[in-house]
Amino acid sequence: MLRNMSLRVQTAEQVLLELRQAHLEMRKQQDEVLRGRGGGQVGKLKSEGLTGKPEALLFIHGQAILPDHESTHRRCAEPLVPWRSAAEEPSVPEKPAEEAEAEDGTAEGQVSEEQQKREEEEQRKLIGYNEAAKTFKRFRPDFKCGSRVPLLPDEEVVECDRLSVTPCCSAPAALQTLYPGAAGYSIELAASKLGPGFPGFQAYHTSVKVDDLEYSFSGDGIVIGRGLPSHVRMADKPQVLYMGLTRISGEDLKEQLGRFFKRGTYDLLRKNCNSFTDCALFFLLDSRLDPGYRGLFGVMWFADLPA
């Protein structure tokens, strides 16, 4: 009996030595893989073994090695997927910057078109436009300077009532419109009466304001000043009318119109302050100075008639 027990002890010791040797070899292989691969695909998991106790579960390159009583190198039937940290997870490729900007531009274009369409519909309602009968009101007694409406079916623009308090005409909607809040320069028209006038005729001095700077024309050419310096000596207070927004700056206005409105070219009847204001409004807003402010042009026209 003692002999049998001795044999069993020797056998158990031999098994323990073999298990220890196998464990050392396994650790050695693991260290080699860690040094060679940088530990990228080597890890440890906790799994429930055959004995019901938590035992170490090693996997190397997707092949799991399970420890059990029969063999320390029995491999799993299915390879295990190595664990990956959040930093190693494959990221979703981002869209190129150009593609993202193109999508943003398309969205902004759609919003702008929808806004312009809504505005045109509202303006057509104001002129009483009938799509079926093609009828509309050409004159708008409530129209303001700088307002914009769509072109009518006869390709003319809605006009203001010249007998109203603000007798100035609108600009066609085919021209570019800047909506409130958009980046641009504010344009205003300033007009002062010249003398008392007489029935059917009143002369005016006019100028244009681009933001805070006034642009006017005199014998010195195009004069620029802050506020309304060209109207200071007038008897009556100038009437200032908002005309709209534009992307064209005052510097561009002076550079372009300065070639035509030079020093010494002022003519009271044919090339005066109103001539400059009319051209400036057209250059900035594609609008025109209302004929009511251009009384001297009428005098010039009659003066040029043959006797």
Automatic annotation (TrEMBL):
In terms of InterPro entries, this protein maps to: PPPDE_dom, PPPDE_sf
Q: Which residues form the PPPDE domain?
A: 185-307
Gene Ontology molecular-function annotations: peptidase activity
Highest taxon of source? Eukaryota
Q: Which UniProt keywords apply?
A: Coiled coil, Hydrolase, Protease
Q: Name one GO biological process term.
A: protein modification by small protein removal
What positions belong to coiled-coil segments? 2-32
Q: Where is this region: Disordered?
A: 81-126
Q: Write out the biased-composition intervals (Basic and acidic residues).
A: 114-125
The entry assigns this protein to a family as follows: Belongs to the DeSI family.
Give the protein name, as stated in the record: Spin protein
The organism named in the record is Symbiodinium necroappetens
Lineage, please?
Answer: Eukaryota, Sar, Alveolata, Dinophyceae, Suessiales
